[in-house]
Task: structure prediction
Amino acid sequence: SAVISQKPSRDICQRGTSLTIQCQVDSQVTMMFWYRQQPGQSLTLIATANQGSEATYESGFVIDKFPISRPNLTFSTLTVSNMSPEDSSIYLCSVQGSSNQPQHFGDGTRLSIL
Amino acid sequence: KQEVTQIPAALSVPEGENLVLNCSFTDSAIYNLQWFRQDPGKGLTSLLLIQSSQREQTSGRLNASLDKSSGRSTLYIAASQPGDSATYLCAVSSAGNNRKLIWGLGTSLAVNP
Result:
């Protein structure tokens, strides 16, 4: 399975600032996803990162708040903009070769906003 | 709207026991179902994927079954070990154009030596 490196692994940020999370895969993958896991809750899909085009966002998530880039088939970034304490969460990158294959995850980014 | 429920929310067992984790889903029109484990401070590790046409999948001491008509899946762990302690998550991919995963809240498992 693909090896996924996610950076940073954790960060503590000030309210109103922005943070960009990177996801690097060791092989080309068709699909890349960004999830949020808030304390005590299940995973929530933020968006599907599309190579060379705008990401596809789920209901409740907007590009201005969570801009996503995917310049190629091995790399994607998620930015959490104008952060507030409500954005404190674990953010996870995942990849999938096709719909009938498992999704594989990075170790996540633990984000705390003061 | 698909909803995924996992029971129990937490489970504590002595080492060596065989155990069953349960996952139920409300819409039987699924594409596949996946089981993951999540260790504290870590991401998710894919354990087993069952396609909608399959009844079960096995990997080592793990066996996952799927009864699509009743909206249920079970994850059976044989001869549990302390290293099995983790949160186990079930996720369902619905049939149709949008095959995104819908997640349960997980079962937190503690295997005591």
Q: What stands out?
A: The radius of gyration of chain B is 14 Å. Chain B is about 0% helix and 60% strand. Chain B has a mean pLDDT of 94. The first strand of chain B starts at residue 4 and ends at 7.
